[in-house]
User: What shape does this take?
Amino acid sequence: MTYTTAIFYFFAAILVFAGLRVITARNPVHAALFLVLAFFTAAGLWMLLEAEFLAITLVLVYVGAVMVLFLFVVMMLDINLDKLREGFWDYLPLAGFVSVLLVIEMSLILGSRHFGLDVMATPEPHPADYSNTKELGRLLYTDYVYAFELAAVILLVAIVAAIALTLRRRKDSKYIDPAEQVKVKRNDRLRIIKMKATQKPGTGEGGA
Amino acid sequence: MGNMVMDWAALQTVVWTLTKIMALVVPLMLGVAYLTYAERKIIGWMQVRIGPNRVGFQGLLQPIADAVKLLMKEIIIPSGANRGLFILGPILVIAPALAAWAVIPFTDQLVLANINAGLLYVLAITSMGVYGVIIAGWASNSKYAFLGAMRSAAQIVSYEIAMGFALVGVLMASQSLNLIDIVQGQAGGAHQWYIWPLFPLFIVYLIAGVAETNRAPFDVAEGESEIVAGFHVEYSGMAFAVFFLAEYANMILVATLAGLLFLGGWLSPVPFLPDGIVWLFFKIGFVLFLFLWFRATFPRYRYDQIMRLGWKVFIPLTIVWIVVVGGMMQTPYGYLFH
Assistant: This one.
């Protein structure tokens, strides 16, 4: 067994374990953290495939941003586990059927018939100055530019839609316009008046 | 794995790599210790105080005394805390703070790992630091800690976007993600540094860096006056100190990146002086001084103002400047942005 293979099995074992714990952990925060571990380990596996851009982006986007928001929500929710587990046995047959179907579908495609070593040769190791990032960027903006731009537009529409659905202006919020705050002049807030001194100088307390 | 032969060369590589890691981490930790000293002294002088001056000459042994004190203290785990995650929190804060240093070059030769996607790696690794804060805040089982964690999570995620966009400008100018190439793209004197064509991005990067490290005036995650100490209120002893180690290590990291990406790294500002690591240290020191200066000068931001600044000012600003840089590169004046 080579060093790389050993690392692969090490990462794969962690990934499978973390993936299992995501669905078996009782505490939803633990489950979310195991999902983080799963993402991170998957990034390690991609790194072994010399897909360093995808690996780092996986960590940057999913671990660094998406899962943080996930955790954020999971921690804020008051999740009652017993309520969630209600009706577990009622749903089990349907869920079992769906998962068996999923496994069958995956085994049809992912078996050695399509992904075996004789079909998919080991990729050639690249020279040290090969930049995976540059190569991906070139492909995305030349050969696949329409698909890429379409995906970007769809995502943009999704963002706009999500904001439009949740945007509401509360009437009771004490919203302050920062521009107004910046524009405030002294005379709006402060009035200096002249008045006669009522005490002889030198008799009162000294300056503050 | 029993048949895996660990030959002599591999062992040598491992030992050599570990030595290099130690050679990086030990000075970093010393830097952290004396940054706390510098902070107390400088802020002291700015506020017409003396600062620490009891332990050692001019208080120079103060950080050592602090470290010894924190090491001797008991680590208290609150009874309602989630024990495993409570311990994991500080570890997850310090690990990315140190791991990010693996790709930081100090000169064109002196680097632990010279990888192609260095800048992306730094971004990805530093984005994981927020987990430590969230986990620490949640596992403490305390309202203040949890509020601090929530604030920190929202703040770090928001400013990461602006910071990432600011770095996109750098990689557009340098056409590389490799940190050594980025520095070498700025060769030729101070007028070639990326700070000039990318000035708005430099300002955004600097301020976002302050926000990312939860430093004043963006330190609402700690917010002593409102939520006592935020996410690490329940921590004591060395577990508490680890949060501070990470915060200061991250400060030095942000300062180093600012030095490398915008201020020409180890390159000398004038052509007739030789390049060298001294320049980089000088630039790091300058940016760190700015950090301390900010803390002594500005009052804490209100939370909604932080969010507004991040989302409504910095992100549009960086996007506009990226478009400007991209557009200018297509014109005959493109050389100004390289």
Summary: The mean pLDDT of chain B is 85. The two ends of chain B are 50 Å apart (CA to CA).
